[in-house]
Amino acid sequence: MPDRRRAKEIVFQAVVAILTFSTIAPLLHIIFSVFVEGLPVLIKGGISFLTDTLAPPSDGLGGIGPAIVGTFVLIALSSLMGLPIALMTGIYSAEYPRSIIGRAAKILLQIMMEFPTILVGLFVMELLVIPMGSYSALAGAFALAVIMMPYVAISTEEALKEIPRSYREAAFSLGLSRAQVVFRVLIKMAKRGTLTGILVGMAKVAGETAPLLFTAGGSERIYFRGLNRPIGAIPLLIYQLVQQPYDNYHQIAWGASLLLMLIFLGIFIPTRLLLREVKF
Amino acid sequence: MKGVARSGISRVPIVILTLALVMLVVLSIHLGKREGANREEGGEIVLVGSGATFPQPQIEKWIDLYTKRNPGVKIEYTGKGSGGGQNDFKNGLVDFACSDPPLKEDLWRELEQKGQPLQFPVIIGAVSIVYNLPGVDNLRLSKGALVAIFLGKIEYWDDPMIKELNPKASLPHKKIIVVHRSDSSGTTAIFTTYLSIISEEWREKVGAGKVIDWPVDKLGRGLGGKGNQGVAAIIKQNPNSIGYVEFAYSINENLQTAFIENRDGNFVAPSPETIKSAISRVSANVPPPTEGYKEKLEQFLEAPGENSYPIIAFSHMIVWGEYSPDKAEVIKDFITWVLMEGQKDENIMTGYVGLPEEVAEIGLSAIEIIKPKP
Lengths: 280, 374
Hints:
The complex is a heterodimer.
Chain A: H1 2-45, H2 47-51, H3 65-95, H4 100-114, H5 117-132, H6 137-161, H7 165-173, H8 178-189, H9 191-206, H10 210-213, H11 234-241, H12 247-276
Helix pairs in contact in A: 1-12, 3-4, 3-6, 3-9, 3-11, 4-6, 5-6, 6-9, 7-8, 9-12, 11-12
Chain B: H1 2-8, H2 11-39, E1 45-51, H3 56-69, E2 73-79, H4 82-90, E3 96-99, H5 105-112, E4 117-132, E5 140-141, H6 143-151, H7 160-165, E6 177-181, H8 186-198, H9 200-205, H10 215-218, E7 222-225, H11 227-237, E8 241-246, H12 247-252, E9 256-257, E10 259-261, E11 267-268, H13 272-282, E12 312-320, E13 322-323, H14 325-339, H15 357-369, E14 371-372
Parallel strand pairs in B: 1-2, 1-3, 5-10, 6-7, 6-8, 13-14
Antiparallel strand pairs in B: 3-12, 4-8, 4-9, 4-12, 10-11
Helix pairs in contact in B: 14-15
């Protein structure tokens, strides 16, 4: 009997291990192939790949400078728009979990998190792009802010809620006002969770394509020209390039993919490291 | 106490906010500078266009050549499909748009509420019939055979109808896989319009459009691919398949291309010569730029001429009759360059065909109409 049980145990473990591996295999494959295809492009292109503008079809590698700058501008700008609101929303729903607004916010944020991003893009197009009469960095960043906010708000809220009640009581007993308790004591303790949310949000929007299609407009030959003008982004550029039948465009797209992955991992890996140690 | 409380505030969001704010300030200064520069004599002028993906590589090439010669001008073109370009143009988001199909009359009337739209051809394209039959080059297809394949009436490659046309080829006894576009596509519209012209049965049973119900799908022998790229990839991966892609793709992807029976009964493959031959016979059908909506796809398909390739189409540029004074000058100069210098063989990408002079004239007549806004 024990033998059969052990055999079952082994079979079960083996099945789980295989399934786990097949779940992460695509990720490994993506990382591997992006490196294999992208690295030679980056090496061949050198520094000018990071600074030049787009090459004409079947004529060299050129560079993806405007898209890189665009991606960073969009991340910064969307953080500027989204983070303050999202942090406040998270604090509010953690502080007043039973109020109607607090409860509604929680549910709506979760819906927002899973909301099809292309619809966000369409919404911003109607709201900003058409009235302004141009695709713009502002509109792109706004769409990304909408996508970033629920991640930040929810993780802020959860981080605040995880703080044991006794700390809050201790803070109040020092005679601090509610605002002081939240902003001077609790936020500091919830720093890791909040920061994780912020970085996950940033990493998420760094790789978004769909919300930018109708808002940012794209710009591959012209560097950043102002908030009210079209702007490029790396994912948008990749999407444009792979649709064309030119070998050099596909190569540029691989190089851009590798850069995008490095930016994404550069934001994401520190996040995971932060998450590992939780202390109060 | 105060000191302790201060250090209690999380610094991270504040640091990020500060950084972002600093960046915003820098950006606004930059923005102010740019607008200042625009007003100055010889400042940088920016033109923005969007639309069809078919002419995109050619337009990128023109932009590259033109802006190298004119450093004060920057031009950006985004490929998002003919429909996307038409919408952008209507909403005033771009200075010019490109569209493969000519504009429809209702959109034209809507545009006329805002100003005078002008439409003219900038480049010629063709639809290639491509296939994957190892060892069988120069496949010949009559109109009847082509329609029968896409209707699904011919099931095997060694069908007598195909064999008769290709007596020397070793056609396999394999089922024909028909590959078509799965997305809404101007290429599909051109190809199905052509099939409707050459076959009454196709016109009645299937019809023409950007998206259609492919009879072969119901027979289980149809495959859909997204974009020309998708169709080309499926054909490369599947021996015994046949499909249609834009000429540029059949050339650049090195696909086997079929010879199609033309109006005069000769078998021709797409090439600059056969496409030009067809255009020269139908170019009189291009309407003046102010009446772009009068152009129809049908007018250019199945052109006469013994060496004419039957499935060709124009890709168009759409511009306004009025621009701000600085832009008017630049857009006129750019379009003139595209229609004169740009049409020379050395400036045309492989897979595209330049306009014959009489068609380029139509665009040049549009230039005359463009005026600076008073």
